Amino acid sequence: MNAPGDAGPDALLDGLDDQQRVAAEALIGPVCMLAGAGTGKTRAITHRIAYGVLTGVYAPNRVMALTFTSRSAAELRGRLRQLGAGGVAARTFHAAALSQLNYFWPHVVGGQVPRILDGKARLLGHAAEQLKLKLDTATLRDLAGEIEWRKVSGLSVSQYESEITKRSLPGRLDAGQSVEMHHAYERLKDERKQLDFEDVLLAMAGMIEAEPSVALQVREQYRFFIVDEYQDVSPLQHNLLSQWLGDRRDLCVVGDASQTIYSFAGARSDYLLDFPKRYEDATVVRLEQNYRSTGPIVATANQLMRGRPGALSLQAVATEEGPPPAVSDYPTDMAEARGVAQRILELIEAGTRPEQIAVLYRVNVQSQALETALGDVGVSYLIRGSKRFFDLPEVKQAVMSLRAASVSIVGEPLFKSVSDVLRSLGWRQNPPEAPGAVRDRWESLNALMGLVDQAAPGTTFRQFTDELMERQAGQHEPTVSAVTLATLHSAKGLEWDAVFVVGLSEGLVPISYASTFEQVDEERRLLYVGITRARKRLALSWAAAGQPGQQRARRERSRFLSEIGVRTARAAGVR
Questions:
Q1: Alpha-carbon distance 363 to 514, whole Å?
Q2: What is the pLDDT of residue 64?
């Protein structure tokens, strides 16, 4: 089979639009891609890298593509491999830093890298015991988030203490107790010779800055850097990136200020917006041709973000026009959930596949009513962010069985090899009729079977399982035939044919604790992310009250719904 580059590097760019092509051909020096939702940024990134490799401008082992999730990194690696640039490193900031730290620590510090903490809660619990503070799980979790914010913001505990009056403190802790917990956490961690995730980046940046030999080796290894989702970069990540670069300028950043939804965790969109000021000769490309959504959905997204700093003006290029987004109001959360479930059932019966439908909400607790309503109408669903696909027992067993079989089975058609193994584990071509655990197990095995259809022609059984193991390591999950339930935050980077955004009332979107202009603006961007996940259909809804017995807590519809100017369809008859 011919590789994509066999027809010549220029042929690689034939499928790009004008602006994507400008970005792909700008291989040297600072480049800033301002890429709106659905504008093909991943396509632009991967084709740019592959074009650089195929033209000989880039040596594959000297390119580092950085992103924020293992899933995104795995997707980049897969696409680059298909384009003939499989030797390029595509990693998260943390994975890249940890790999370097593991290499340099024995030479610079001596011994092995200290153990990396899986999480902060247990150590914080021990710190609370030392300080004789009784803290519940929720407070410990919020404390962990506060420590992460401090460290990614580049603040010492002393510097944090001077900023603490501007922060909302976890639980019932006062400022003094909160600072004591920060000190105790760091002290215990040092005593036990442990590092947390933020320490990995801090240690690597410090090592490059302090050790000229380390800086020389790191900068010799990687010359060209590409950073996806640059609007989500924190000061800590930005500092590490600066250390990796040194005085070089071969940096391409890609992002969208309108999708900055992690400011609370330290993300700074000004690094993206100010990039042309830092590099006055930078090539700046605006990707605004939206290939994902219909015109009415794009118009709604533009209306929401009109006049916001850094907002791009999306232009729909979809050939089919879908129905305009509409808002439905309901008397209660349960009525809203049942109304949405009924509409989803109608879509499925009309031919929309369940995996092409999502329901998005602001906080996890909102999923409970939706789970009940979908279960009542017999629609399968999965909750994004709950148990990971590759952690399911049946999936673990299947991956191990496929890997073992691929060692000895050669020469058979890939479909036969994979299906034989999965049949031995209970998979059949036709799904079980009844919902429940048996159907859920079948859906998981069928998702693995579906990867065969995505494999490139000529893929061997062993190559298939190699890619499957890579997917497992990167938690790059296949598609399961079920409706997705997800928070607006966890939906970022995904897309579906039909999207229902529920709970659009004051106190939820924007959330009740969003009190400043900046916080409310972040809630606006969060809704923008939700709206732009939809390809063909978008439904927005809100409920005037919570569950029965909570009617006194009357709600008002979100201020954002008034701004986007879509019509309201009253749905009070749904109970």
A1: 14
A2: 96
Q: What is the full DSSP assignment across 8-26?
A: -GGGGGTTS-HHHHHHHH-
Question: What would the two tokens of residue 115 be?
Answer: 């153990």
Query: Does residue 445 contact residue 422 with C-beta atoms inside 8 Å?
Result: yes
Instruction: Enumerate residues 6+ apart whose C-beta is below 8 A from 340.
Output: 359, 370, 373, 500, 502, 539, 541
Cis peptide before 510 (omega within 30 of 0): yes
DSSP secondary structure code for residue 82 in this structure:
H
Give the amino acid at 502: V
User: Tokens 């259809």 belong to which residue?
Assistant: 453
Model pLDDT, residue 573: 39
Hey, what are 472's tokens? 């497992």
pLDDT the model gives residue 498: 97
Tokens 């203490």, residue?
Answer: 161
252, with CB counted inside 10 A (0-12, 13-18, 19+), is buried
Global model pTM greater than 0.70: yes
DSSP H or E stretch at residue 569 = strand 568-570
How far is residue 291's CA from residue 69's CA, in Å, rounded to a whole number?
23
Residue 474 token pair: 């990167």
* Residue 45 · residue 228 · CB < 8 Å: yes
Q: Looking at this protein, which amino acid is placed at residue 139?
A: T
> Is residue 141 packed enough to be buried (19+ CB in 10 Å), middle (13-18) or exposed (0-12)?
middle
Amino acid residing at 391: D
The pLDDT of residue 548 is above 70? no
Q: How confident is the model at residue 450 (pLDDT cuts 50, 70, 90)?
A: confident
Rounded to an integer, what distance in angstroms lies between the CA atom of residue 10 and that of residue 446?
Answer: 39
d(CA 133, CA 178): 11
CA angle 549, 555, 559 (to 5 degrees): 165
Residue 368: count other Cβ atoms within 10 Å of its Cβ: 13
**What are 188-192's contacts with CB under 8 Å, separation 24+?**
188/123, 188/126, 188/127, 188/130, 189/117, 189/123, 192/123
Question: Residue for token digits 């118009």?
Answer: 299
Which string of DSSP letters, residue by residue, matches 90-147? EEEHHHHHHHHHHHHHHHHT-SPPPEEPS-SHHHHHHHHHHTT----HHHHHHHHHHH
Mean pLDDT of 219-227: 95
Q: What does the block give as tokens for 236?
A: 């800590």
Residue type, 369: A
Phi, psi angles (nearest 5°) of residue 552:
-65, -30
Q: Are 575 and 376 in contact (CB under 8 A)?
A: no
Q: Find out whether 376 and 342 touch, Cβ atoms under 8 Å.
A: no
pLDDT per position as a tens digit, 259-296: 999 998 899 999 999 999 999 999 999 999 999 999 99
How many residues make up the chain in this entry? 575
Q: Give the mean pLDDT of the chain.
A: 89
- Rounded distance, CA 415 to CA 423, Å? 12
Residue 102 to residue 92: CA distance in whole angstroms: 15
Place of tokens 């027992």: 393
Judge contact between 447 and 390, C-beta under 8 A: no
Say how far apart CA 430 and CA 490 lie, in whole Å. Answer: 31
Residue 177, classified by CB atoms within 10 Å of its CB into exposed (0-12), middle (13-18) or buried (19+), is middle
Residue 159, H or E segment? helix 157-163
